[in-house]
Amino acid sequence: MRATMTPQDLADRFVQKFGTRVSNVQVKERCEGVKKLPQKTVWMTVSREDINDAVAELISIDYPHLGVIAASDNGDMIDLLYHLQVFFGGKHEEICVVFTVQVPKSDPHVPTISGLIPGAVYSEREKQDMIGVTVDGIPDSRRIFLPDDFPENVYPWRKDEKGIPASMVRELWKVDRPTDRAVPPVAEPEPAEKKESEPVKDAPSGGAAE
Q1: Gap between the Cα atoms of 51 and 99, Å rounded
Q2: Phi, psi of 68 (to 5 degrees)
Q3: Residues in the chain with pLDDT values less than 70
Q4: 83-96 b/e with 16+ CB inside 10 Å = b?
Q5: Which tens digits make up the pLDDT trace of 129-153?
Q6: Global confidence as pTM
Q7: Is the alpha carbon torsion for 25, 26, 27, 32 positive or negative?
Q8: 7-174 has which CATH code?
Q9: What is the pLDDT of residue 177?
Q10: Sequence ranges of the domains in the chain
Q11: In 3D, which of 107, 153, 112 has the Cα closest to residue 129?
């Protein structure tokens, strides 16, 4: 049986370890599903310079399961949210830890965490493809979702001038539709065949036959 801790204990440990290097520390718990099972989450913001140290500290508590690295375009900044679970698989013990890293668009770089969690490289490649954050030190920088001939400096998740331009949006309902043909008429539904109703038999009266 591995040792666990409460979400508040975990949050306190990071505050004691990192001090002002972590901020916006929040502990949240909500119940989900018919059985109202508790879902416990610890949120905190760390700098991109400290993300590897934060992940390493989490590993020292319990090797985490990386769910996803989410991303959001928030104007001048891109928020990367590293969703990790510790005490994974323990009944009512799992805690989700979310590290938020704010990356300025003026310098959209973040270090890879794949040296600590190798599987992170796939989600990091997605961030390079979709929102234009360069992951420094990533061992595999190939595109993962976009084709090789996709235009450079265009990122589908961006909400600014680097997002998908209107010229790339295709109205698929118009593509390859012949223009020299009449619209096919809608076939009239065939009337349903009527079945002849069977004659209603007289109910027996129950009297004696004459």
Answers
A1: 8
A2: -165, 155
A3: 1-3, 172-178, 184-186, 194-210
A4: bbbbbeeeeeebbb
A5: 999 999 999 999 999 999 999 999 9
A6: 0.79
A7: negative
A8: 3.30.460.80
A9: 63
A10: 7-174
A11: 153
